Every structure is written in C-alpha cells, then in structure tokens.
Amino acid sequence: QVQLVESGGGSVQTGGSLRLSCAASGGTFSNYAMGWFRQAPGKEREFVASISRSGQTTDFTDSVKDRFAISKDNAKNTGYLQMNSLKPEDTAVYYCAIRPGLALPRRPTEYGYWGQGTQVTVSS
C-alpha cells in the first residue's frame, strides 16, 4: 500500500519561500507521476503543479508559474514543491498525490494516492 507524507508547511510573510516535501513509501516512486494540489477554506481542491514519472515533464497552473518549482528524486522516493514569492492567496492546505502512468492530469480524481496535507499560511 502506497503512503504519502507531506512536510514543510508553515507560516510566512508575503514574498517568503517554503519547500514542501512528499515522502512516499510502499511503492516504486519512479513508476508514478506526482501532483500537488491545494484547498483553501470554503473552496474546492485545485491543481497546482505536476511532474512526470521521470521528472522531465512538468505542468503548472497559471497563478504559480514563475514562482513555484516541482521536482522529484526517485532515488529518495521524495517529491518537492518549491514555493517562492508567496502571496496571501497561496494560503491553503497543500496535498501531494501520485498516479501510475504517463499522463499528467489536472483533475484530483485522476490521482489515486494522497497525503494528509500540510498547511501553508501566507500573511500580508
């Protein structure tokens, strides 16, 4: 059974940075594409970024392009979301998720394994 554990969330001021980590166990990480999603209070879970199994292909939602970076280290079974120039509207619970295969979908329902989430709070 694949398990994911996120870490690295916290509280920062506008313009600050955080790096989220997603540690995977129970599966071969290189077989999975990874996505990061976020959910703010009262809102639906939304796509943030994704990365292919090999790490060579990435996708970002427009609001985080040029500010966030996604990566994965298959040898360490860990994925990352580097978040720079954070804004108050980035405040949310952030989740990592993985799915087998080559596709990089943006819909949360396309991902079968999820972490528990980590809170990111950006104050102005």
The main sheet comes to: 7 strands, mixed
* Mass-distribution shape: globular
What share of the residues lie within helices? under 10%
Order of helices and strands: EEEEEEEEEEE
What is the rounded Rg? 13 Å
Oligomer: single chain
How much is the average pLDDT?
A: 97
Contiguous low-pLDDT stretches (5 residues minimum) are none
DSSP helix count?
0
Report how far apart the termini are: 40 Å
Strand content: over 45%
What structural class should be given to the helix and strand makeup?
mainly beta
Beta-strand segment tally = 11
Describe this structure in words.
This protein is mainly β. The mean pLDDT is 97. 0% of the residues lie in helices and 51% in strands. Strands 2, 4, 5, 6, 9, 10 and 11 form a seven-stranded mixed sheet that branches. A four-stranded antiparallel sheet has the order 1-3-8-7, with no helix packed on it. It has strands at 3-7, 10-13, 18-25, 32-39, 46-51, 58-60, 68-73, 78-83, 92-100, 113-114, 118-123.
Q: Mind sketching the topology for me?
A:
Blueprint: E1 3-7, E2 10-13, E3 18-25, E4 32-39, E5 46-51, E6 58-60, E7 68-73, E8 78-83, E9 92-100, E10 113-114, E11 118-123
Parallel strand pairs: 2-11
Antiparallel strand pairs: 1-3, 3-8, 4-5, 4-9, 5-6, 7-8, 9-10, 9-11
Provide a short characterization of the protein structure:
This protein is mostly beta strands and 124 residues long. Helix content is 0%, strand content 51%. Strands 2, 4, 5, 6, 9, 10 and 11 form a 7-stranded mixed sheet that branches.
